[in-house]
Amino acid sequence: HDHFLSGPQPLPEDEQHLPSTVSSCSGGVVVFTTDYGQVYTYKQNALSRQKVAPMHVSSISGVEDMSSLEDLHDGAIMYNLYLRYQHRLIYTYIGSILAAVNPYQNLPGLYDRAAVDRYSRHYLGEISPHIYAVANECYRSLWKRLQNQCVLISGESGAGKTESTKLILTFLSAMSQRSLDSPGASSTGSTSRVEEALLESSPIMEAFGNAKTVYNNNSSRFGKFIQLHFSQKGNIQGGRIVDCILPNP
Ligand SMILES: Nc1ncnc2c1ncn2[C@@H]1O[C@H](COP(=O)(O)OP(=O)(O)OP(=O)(O)O)[C@@H](O)[C@H]1O
């Protein structure tokens, strides 16, 4: 029987409910082993719902969208990300927000041309969570909402913000190129240079803006606001990169 364990309520900041199973129950003592390997022993008569609560079925197998979790607390969110990560599923939605877990390795096929095509043909949430789905939603919303769109990427150092930014730019560049290749569109060749310039700006920016730190071998030492301008047809016409959030010396 799966359970979440907890200490006294409210939980101290560094404690959270943990997914566990009862490994033994005799002599008035219950032993719980968490899925992460820790062992907790409780006197049976001292157990309360505050300490141990049944785990909802939605938390046991993992969900693609964590807004559908019945147990909504840090422990349930962490466990869901953990379950998916074990199957190399690094992306998970929380409604329309995407949570990404850094895999620290290349995952074959995850970002290839076929993936760009697949995500360009589906709305966010229709197929498995992916950074391309966020980029696609952003691109489509330019026409759906007729408003500027913005993607905010946040996370601790080494979480994968820079890589995620590059993936979004890759997707948008592919969409831009496609809008020029579509029948009736006349490609001038100059816009494809804009896309190339955009993608090739990353290594240049990294050459003088990144440094090795204890957290990340390729850590950005300043934040970037990247603005892209799209034509009505859907191709990128230009853009700019503004450095911001300079850390204190
Ligand atoms: N989606 C991914 N797939 C494979 N490896 C990744 C992915 N995202 C990040 N990484 C790896 O993790 C490293 C750190 O990621 P990244 O530089 O994007 O972090 P960051 O959040 O921008 O960190 P900082 O705030 O320090 O700049 C990358 O150099 C890369 O090796």
TrEMBL record:
The keyword tRNA processing does not apply. Coiled coil: none annotated. SMART domains: MYSc. One of its GO terms (cellular component) is myosin complex. ATP binds at G155, E156, S157, G158, A159, G160, K161, T162. Residues 1-21 are annotated as: Disordered. It comes from the Eukaryota. SUPFAM superfamilies: P-loop containing nucleoside triphosphate hydrolases. Residues 61-249 form the Myosin motor domain. The keyword DNA-binding does not apply. Keywords: Actin-binding, ATP-binding, Motor protein, Myosin, Nucleotide-binding. GO terms for biological process: cytoskeleton-dependent intracellular transport; regulation of cell shape; regulation of filopodium assembly. Belongs to the TRAFAC class myosin-kinesin ATPase superfamily. Myosin family. This is Myosin motor domain-containing protein. It comes from Cynoglossus semilaevis. The lineage of its organism: Eukaryota, Metazoa, Chordata, Craniata, Vertebrata.
